Amino acid sequence: MNTCFAPCPVVFDLDGTLIDSAPDIHATVNVVLRQRNVPPLTLDQVRGFIGGGVDLLWRRVIAATGLPVEAHRDMVAAFMARYEDANALTRLYPNVADALSVLADRGYPLGICTNKPLGPTRAILDHFGITGLFGAIIGGDSMPQKKPDAAPLRAAFTGLGADPHSPKGVYVGDSEFDAECAANTAVPFLLYTRGYRKTPIGQMLHTANFDDYGQLPLLVEETVAIS
């Protein structure tokens, strides 16, 4: 049994886990496409492209729209110029704020590990007034590696005081990238089922799953107890 000295760090993915940001990402993608006179994509299409970071998002957009691959750099630059301020349509998932407050009040160190670039990550956390809850924030451009590589998640746990070589803690996410990252880091993974995953729940490697953040504090305590 792995001992996790209480309170354990709890690290969260962001898009599709704490926030439903797909509507803003969708709107921003279509603004950039419109500048190229390219027909807009649907919300469902763009939602399916989220998870691997901005570069992968735009590789998928370019493939879906038939744009030349050489347009990638310019499209990413145009997108990033608008992305940090794209928060009008983004929402916290229900009960997220309460769950984070409960975990923080119980002494759990909280962190973020996301493939979203660090600038927009901090901007959206500031927008919702929750930045101060997180003792470590790792974005998709914080280091050379991105999820599902273990390095970003290890960095988040290390920033919260965990052993950098064998971190103990819990990762909360919604996607295949998150599940693989947790497995690569050898930490329990709690799957939020109302996010952006494409794979059936039963086919994803996870310790437990939940669809309501009201369930999360108890689920964390149960997961820590058996870790």
TrEMBL record:
Family per UniProt?
Belongs to the HAD-like hydrolase superfamily. CbbY/CbbZ/Gph/YieH family.
Q: What is the lineage of its organism?
A: Bacteria, Pseudomonadati, Pseudomonadota, Alphaproteobacteria, Rhodobacterales
Q: Which UniProt keywords apply?
A: Carbohydrate metabolism, Hydrolase, Magnesium, Metal-binding
**Its biological function?**
Specifically catalyzes the dephosphorylation of 2-phosphoglycolate. Is involved in the dissimilation of the intracellular 2-phosphoglycolate formed during the DNA repair of 3'-phosphoglycolate ends, a major class of DNA lesions induced by oxidative stress.
Q: Check the record and name the InterPro entries matching this protein.
A: HAD-like_hydrolase_sf, HAD-like_sf, HAD-SF_hydro_IA, HAD_2, HAD_sf, PGP-like_dom2, PGPase_prok
Please, which domain of life does this record's source organism belong to? Bacteria
Show the GO cellular component annotation of the record. Answer: cytosol
- Name of this protein: Phosphoglycolate phosphatase
| Pfam families assigned | HAD_2
Q: Which residues form the active site?
A: 13 (nucleophile)
Query: Which cofactors does this gene product need?
Result: Mg(2+)
List the GO molecular function terms.
metal ion binding; phosphoglycolate phosphatase activity
Q: Pathway listed for it?
A: Organic acid metabolism; glycolate biosynthesis; glycolate from 2-phosphoglycolate: step 1/1
